[in-house]
Amino acid sequence: MLKWPLQLFDIRRRFFRNLKNPERILEIGCGSGYNVKALHLLYPDAKITGLDLFDVSPLPAYAIYEKVDLDLGRLPFPTGHFDAVVITHVLEHLQRPLELAPEITRVLRKGGLVYCETPNWTSLFVPSFGFKRLQQGPLNFYDDPTHLKPWSVQGLFNYVHQSCGIKVVRAGVVRNIPKLLFDPFILLSGLILGRRPYILSVVWNVVGWAIFAIGRKE
Questions:
Q1: Angle at the Cα of 14 (from 168 to 214), degrees rounded to 5?
Q2: Is residue 165 exposed (0-12), middle (13-18) or buried (19+ Cβ within 10 Å)?
Q3: Distance between CA atoms of residues 30 and 36, nearest Å
Q4: How many Cα atoms sit within 13 Å of 115 on the Cβ side?
Q5: For residue 85, is it within any domain?
Q6: pTM
Q7: CATH number where 72 lies
């Protein structure tokens, strides 16, 4: 019941809502399509493309899927093709994230927006414990064996500003302040009901587990 009102204060959802009738959106590292589905609800007429390493498309039929090895650096799209690029929890998995940076800029149109999100370096110090251990979702950065390198806010700022060459309009820690009021109850519910995602959402919010940077191509 609280999920939708609290999303009003979620920085990623706010970025999605503030896009101005985009025609084409790219998500780099789309995973199972969580962001793609959220974007489609807001912009049902937009062409949304997702990239990942899956052999079979994980996306709904309304989205376009491309299998791409992001460590190779090359994106299979024309220059200036997208109004917005979203890349969340991907950079920390890449061996060569700097090679991807100029491609993010190239495929983004002038005036287009990019949203980057990664784990915060402070996630290295979050305790890892075995509550519902087999369920997906890391507490400590290294709970995910494919994680290579955490980022700082300044590092992510420099990635967008220097490596991508895109003007950063905002950067900081991902934290939903109003949700902090409800986090003790969400945590208790997670422990009682055995819901690891509830616990993850509280821990991520309280400790500022993730960071973000928003940029505009000039």
A1: 10
A2: middle
A3: 7
A4: 22
A5: yes
A6: 0.91
A7: 3.40.50.150
Nearest to 211 by CA among 175, 178, 183, 177: 175
- Which residue bears the tokens 């979702």? 137
CA 160 remoteness from chain centre: 14
Spatial separation of the C-alpha atoms in residues 143 and 74, rounded to whole Å: 29
Distance CA 49, CA 28 (A): 8
Number of domains forming the structure of the chain: 1
pLDDT, tens digit (0-9, with 9 covering 90-100), for 41-87? 999 999 999 999 999 999 999 999 999 999 987 899 999 999 999 99
Residue at 79 is within a domain: yes
Q: What is the pLDDT of residues 192-213, one digit of tens each?
A: 888 888 888 888 889 899 999 9
DSSP labels, 162-217: IIS--EEEEEEEE--TGGGGTHHHHHHHHHHHT-HHHHHHHHHHHHT-EEEEEEE-
The values of phi and psi at residue 152, to 5°, are -100, 165
Distance CA 214, CA 171 (A): 6
Phi, psi of 211 (to 5 degrees): -130, 165
Q: Determine the Cα–Cα distance for residues 9 and 214; give it in Å rounded to an integer.
A: 16
